[in-house]
Structure formats: C-alpha cells, structure tokens
Amino acid sequence: MQPETTNETFTFKILGPLEFRAAGVEFGIAGVRQQTLLTLLLLEAGRTITSPRLIEGVWGGRPPETAEAQLRICVSRLRRRLADAGLRDVISTESNGYRLNVPEDRIDVHRCAAHLERSAQAETAGDIAEAVRQLRSALALWRGPAAEGLPSPVVRAAAARLDEERASALEHCFGMEIQQGRHHHIVPELMSIATEHPFREGLQSHLMTALYHSGRQADALRVYREVKRRFTEELGIDPSERLRTLEAKILEQNPRLDEDGPALPKESLNRLAALERENASLRAERQHIGRLMVRFIHRSPGRVPS
Fold this sequence. Notes:
It is elongated and about 70 Å long. It contains eleven helices and eight strands. By secondary structure, it is mostly helical. A hairpin with a 3-residue loop joins strand 7 (91-93) and strand 8. It has helices at residues 32-43, 51-59, 67-84, 108-124, 128-139, 153-179, 183-196, 201-213, 217-235, 241-251, 266-299; strands at 4-5, 10-13, 19-22, 25-26, 49-50, 87-88, 91-93, 97-100. Among the domains are: 4-106, Winged helix-like DNA-binding domain superfamily/Winged helix DNA-binding domain (Arc Repressor Mutant, subunit A), CATH 1.10.10; 181-289, Serine Threonine Protein Phosphatase 5, Tetratricopeptide repeat (Alpha Horseshoe), CATH 1.25.40.10. The protein has a three-stranded antiparallel sheet with strand order 2-3-4, with no helix packed on it. The chain has a three-stranded antiparallel sheet with strand order 5-8-7. The longest helix has 34 residues, at 266-299. Helix 1 (32-43) crosses helix 3, helix 5 (128-139) packs antiparallel against helix 6 (153-179) and helix 7 packs antiparallel against helix 8 (201-213).
C-alpha cells in the first residue's frame, strides 16, 4: 500500500547531523531514541527492519525488558511527528518489524549512492568529466560525519562505512581531476581534506602531485616529510614505496609523476583504517561536546557574563 503523503517537498539527511525538512521548514526530531530509530529506517528505506534489529540499534546490547513496548511508543511518536509535516502513514508495520516507505531520492544517503553509481558508469565509458561531475554531486551532499551525534553502535558502524566511502570518493575524485590537469584548482580543497585524513596515503600523494605540478616543489616535499614523521612516530612504519618513489621523482624534478607502485602491507593498511575511524569518531565527539557546552551555557541562569 502506498503511503498517504500530502507534502511533496520533503528531504531527509543523515550525511551529517540528522535533518528532516518539509516545505522548506526544518522539523526537529525529539530525543536520541527517535532520532536513532529514524536514522535506522532511513538507512534501509523501502526495506523491512526487524524489531530485534531496531531494538539493538536503539538500546544497544542491554535493552530493557519493556523494549518492545517502548519501541512501539517510539514508532508511534515518530509517525505523529512525520504526520505533522504532511507525511502520513509512511512507516508501515510489518509482521516482523517496520518499514519506511519514502522515495530514495528524498534521502541524501541514497541520492549519494546513485551519483556514485553513475560516476562509475561514466568512468567505465571513458567520460572522465562526467565521472568527476557525478562524484562532485555526491560529495556535495555531505555536511559532516555521517549520523553525527548519535551514539548507537549500530548507527556508528553504518556511519563509519559511509565516512569511508566519502573518503574513497574524495580520493578518487582528486585523482581524476589531476588527470584533467586541474592542479591549481584543487590544491586548497585537497590541502584541507588531506589534513582531515592524515593517514590516507592516496590523498597525501595526490596533494604532493598537485603541489608539484602547481610549481610548488618545496611544499610537495614538505608534505612528504610530514607524512614520514607522522607514520614513523605514530605507527612505527615508513611510508609505502609508492610515496617514497613519488618523493624521489619530485626531487629529480621529473615532469611525469607516476603514482603507481606497491602500497603498504595489508596489516599496515588495517592499522591506518583503524586510525582514520578513531580520528573521525574523536572529531564527531568533540563537536558534539562543544554543542552541549554551548547549550548548557545559554540555559544556565547563573552564568557569569563574559
């Protein structure tokens, strides 16, 4: 059965903090439980999620004895909130769980996936310009770490996967733009992204290449020295042969920089990936704590004016 919706202009966003807008108005979702429930339903829009899975997502490994009853209450409240925005009957009750029935193109995470798929198709067809355009459209949907501020382990696992997909898309996009000769255009953004992901060798090599082809050989070598210091001090390993070879070619002022070459061993790559996830988690936690502190300061009646 199709849901009854009276509002045709609505969007759900989870590539960043959870956001729900209808007719240009943002509708807040009260409470972490309802926010987590909606996020889980959005991730699997159009598919049934079993009640045990939702309970695990909302309460983690230690749900209360009344979890099933509380889940029904959460669903009921979420339905009312969506109905307030003109979306009626979009959460259906199934025999073994619940399903969110909204078009995937109204949910940023699914729109992002569609852009990534179209990018891959364009690249296969040899249309690099279109592949980059689709990647840029996908990346523009991101507003911060996925599902930022929601502590559920199930949500965090899904968010880590999405954040990794974003980092990989960024890396691939920069690589194709370097092939197009857009070195000068991407250097500022690439410097920022490489700082955000200090252990991704692909991004660091792209930055070195873009700087070198922009006439900034000293800056490219400085990036390599910083990467080597970071890897040695924090991981106890040297950069991969690919990055070392890139440095040597920059020193030689080689007009062609071939970034291909053996990457790090799988064990080292796993350690890098773990550090990337930890860095992303710490960034999200710091931002969450910062928002809580701002709210506390503004709500405290006895605060001392600065």
